[in-house]
Amino acid sequence: MITYKLKNDSETYKVIVKSFYELSKELGVGVRSLQSIMVSDEPISDIWTVIQVIPEKQFPTADTLPDISVWGYGWLVLSKNAKEKLFSYLKSSGEFLPIVVDGNEMFIFRCTTWGEENDSECIFHYVDGEVDGLEYLSFDQTDIDKKLLFKSKLEGGMSVYCTSTFKGLCRELKLSGLRYDEDLISPF
């Protein structure tokens, strides 16, 4: 089974972003408190308020909002239509939080599922004898076989990964906005 790192198709679709600082202000929590909350798997719906987001047009060809996009922190942003279509598949893998993007009701999907890494295949990058990130990331296929979306503890939980099953599901449901990258480490 192929594993992918989810990325935005920013050449075609607007990108939904908000700085960590702005987000912490809107939620009424300190930056450090928010950082602690983000790396935990505890629900954040009790502190969540509907936030307004203005999408960025990173390319001249990006004129529309995507059905699904990536918003760092191990989050995806889903249109109302995408949430309705994916809810039954994803409800046990995270939580849905409402946002408004350009006047459109959308939802953050905060992934709280972790994929077990294949330690024998992962390669760390070292600087002066200290671990300084990953050069290669691999997941235990038995662990992720039944998971659609998941994060990596070795990567810090800041990206969302998926299997070919999720990619096929999005194609079947005609949900667009994502790029599926087989290079699990590349930021581009």
Short description:
The protein has helices spanning 20-27, 31-39, 80-90, 141-144, 164-172; strands spanning 3-8, 51-53, 68-70, 75-79, 94-101, 104-111, 123-127, 130-136, 149-150, 161-163, 178-181.
Question: What labels describe this entry?
Answer:
single chain, 188 residues, alpha+beta, five-stranded mixed β-sheet, 11 strands, globular
Largest sheet: 5 strands, mixed
Q: Class by helix and strand content?
A: alpha+beta
Provide the gyration radius in Å.
16 Å
The count of domains is: 1
Give the tally of β-strands: 11
Tally the helices: what do you get?
5
Q: What is the string of helix and strand elements?
A: EHHEEEHEEEEHEEHE
Blueprint (SSEs and pairs):
Layout: E1 3-8, H1 20-27, H2 31-39, E2 51-53, E3 68-70, E4 75-79, H3 80-90, E5 94-101, E6 104-111, E7 123-127, E8 130-136, H4 141-144, E9 149-150, E10 161-163, H5 164-172, E11 178-181
Parallel strand pairs: 2-5
Antiparallel strand pairs: 1-10, 1-11, 3-4, 4-6, 5-6, 7-8, 9-10
